[in-house]
Amino acid sequence: MQTFVPSDPDFDRRVRTSFARQNIMSLLQATIVRVAPGQVDVALPVRPELGQQHGFVHAGVVTAIVDTACGYAALTLVPPGTGVLSIEFKTNLLAPARGSTLNARARVLKPGRNICVYAGDVFALDDHGETLVATMLATIMVVRGRPGLVD
Amino acid sequence: MQTFVPSDPDFDRRVRTSFARQNIMSLLQATIVRVAPGQVDVALPVRPELGQQHGFVHAGVVTAIVDTACGYAALTLVPPGTGVLSIEFKTNLLAPARGSTLNARARVLKPGRNICVYAGDVFALDDHGETLVATMLATIMVVRGRPGLVD
Amino acid sequence: MQTFVPSDPDFDRRVRTSFARQNIMSLLQATIVRVAPGQVDVALPVRPELGQQHGFVHAGVVTAIVDTACGYAALTLVPPGTGVLSIEFKTNLLAPARGSTLNARARVLKPGRNICVYAGDVFALDDHGETLVATMLATIMVVRGRPGLVD
Amino acid sequence: MQTFVPSDPDFDRRVRTSFARQNIMSLLQATIVRVAPGQVDVALPVRPELGQQHGFVHAGVVTAIVDTACGYAALTLVPPGTGVLSIEFKTNLLAPARGSTLNARARVLKPGRNICVYAGDVFALDDHGETLVATMLATIMVVRGRPGLVD
Questions:
Q1: Shortest alpha-carbon distance between residue B31 and chain D (Å)
Q2: pLDDT digit string (tens) for A50-61?
Q3: Nearest-5° angle of CA D120, CA C94, CA B136?
Q4: Chain D residues closer than 8 Å to B85 by CB
Q5: Distance separating alpha carbons of residues C57 and D22, to the nearest angstrom
Q6: What is residue B76's DSSP assignment?
Q7: How many alpha carbons fall within 13 Å on the CB side of residue A118?
């Protein structure tokens, strides 16, 4: 495991402030539960309102929390005054998303000046432990000089 | 454009009934606006509750509606008594998702007995017309003999 | 179908010159068969040397020709003095790649100043017509000021 | 790291025999350098014939060796009398593929009765060590009862 030194010493506050502006996270009732250089975890209590037709959490919701985790993992490593933007991602759905809580964990594969690549895993927690239910591979762009897109 | 003949003459009702069971679509306030063989459209009014940190609709929400559109496009073409399950998808985000309404449109690329491939596009509508904001390429599995996963 | 105006009037020669430097295309015996603004086709005669274990053309070879087609489709639309680089792609394999010739056809989905998105399809030709055997969704970066990466 | 028990005790011979039938691996001069339950490595000496226009190994070749590694990693875990087929993959290109040798390493993320998910990494080796140049996320189908597609 590589160690990454954030170029913004204030990265933790910066990530949490931006997360708080993601209204969709409030609607889903997701919270940010870990912020470290190149790594962010997002937790989501499972509830019926998030379900697809079979009662599992919808793949779009699973994608939402792991995309947010990947984006903020990227934000921990970019300089002050820049922002990040997901260009694309792929999600593999490995098992039904059910249980009590989903935990999305993102980690940096390649930090870059312009293009970053992140991996994210989503685990479902229940009484028996945790199950990997989805994995994401995401490409994120660092944005400079576009005021509306900073942080 | 190929024409597809649904093996279930009741495909329209079947798709709409299943869509009505996706609680997440109610939470997002998305509706199904077209059902045709191999094609389904889902519409989503844009509102602040769906936003990411810059105020655009979150990529996970964009993914949710186009994944649902792809899944139900697949469901139009499978036999009665079977179900469909997204295995994986890739979403490219092409422009900020804003405007008044998002429209997700799915179409079949390859219907298969076991594995189907669908493409989905998401358009943002505003006063000036529509803009392609995202495109998805999705792999969907046909499920047989698993009662909880039918329709 | 949108029409695109190349910013480099010499785009055809530029693409063909660069293609000629892709040694792998010679090894595979692939040729460039069409160059138009935002669109490039690459043809590959099917032969046993390209096969995987069941005798079909290997998915990596299919990917090679459609990635090259996408990259050069992007190169038709970028300014002189810039280059293009594939960041990532996803390939769905839809049918066995066999027949007499494979034809990879790329088209622009979104031309961008920095990030471009292309779609590519690979068709297999035999006596009965053509079959779609693979489809690619690719993200391509425009490269500036890096002399080794121009064209 | 999970441990996997192959259902075919003869998995090593089975994988190597099938690899030997992939003519494309001979054309590229790739060899299989490790076979373990759920894991396969493929090595490829870098040479000019494999190059794209800037002299790096073409992304399609990088994809070919890591797709083969993923496919055979899957084959180590499936029962005798079955085969495997790549349905789709996504490759992120992280750094130029150059150096003396490329090493593709695949590992199982989810073994499944019907659908398996594998991750693959490609490292470039030179005098200074190894660099991660690409990463793949792949979906593989287990094939039963189709004689031409076994092993």
A1: 30
A2: 999 999 999 999
A3: 75
A4: none
A5: 10
A6: T
A7: 37
**Which residue out of D87, D88, D92 would a mutagenesis test of the A interface target, given it has the greatest number of A Cβ atoms within 10 Å?**
D92
Which residue of chain C comes nearest to A115, CA vs CA?
Answer: C87
C5 located within any domain = no
Residue C81 maps to a domain: yes
* DSSP of D60-102: HHHHHHHHHHHHHHHHTTSPTTEEEEEEEEEEEE-S---SSEE
Closest CA to A14 of A105, A74, A64, A75: A75
What pLDDT score does B1 carry? 59
Tokens representing C55 are 């005798």
Q: Quick check: is B59 in a domain?
A: yes
Question: Is residue B6 assigned to a domain?
Answer: no
Type of residue found at C22: Q
Structural domain including C83 reads: 11-145
Find the residue in A nearest to B151 (Cα).
A53
Average pLDDT, chain C: 96
Spatial separation of the C-alpha atoms in residues D97 and D59, rounded to whole Å: 8
**Residue A81 is encoded by which pair of tokens?**
């005054």
Q: Count of domains in chain D? A: 1
pLDDT in tens, C79-111: 999 999 999 999 999 999 999 999 999 999 999
Task: Give this prediction's pTM.
Answer: 0.96
Residues C44-76: tens digit of each pLDDT: 999 999 999 999 999 999 999 999 999 999 999
Sign, Cα dihedral of A141, B63, B111, D87: positive
Note the pLDDT tens digit of each residue in B65-124.
Answer: 999 999 999 999 999 999 999 999 999 999 999 999 999 999 999 999 999 999 999 999
**ipTM tops the 0.95 cut:** yes
Collect all residues of chain A within an 8 Å Cβ-Cβ radius of residue B139: none
**Does A90 contact C87 at a Cβ distance shorter than 8 Å?**
no
CATH value at residue A126: 3.10.129.10
The 10s digit of each residue's pLDDT in A110-131 is: 999 999 999 999 999 999 999 9
Helices D59-75 & C59-75, crossing angle to 10 degrees? 150
Nearest to D24 among C58, C65, C68 (CB): C58
Residue B93 phi, psi (nearest 5): -100, 115
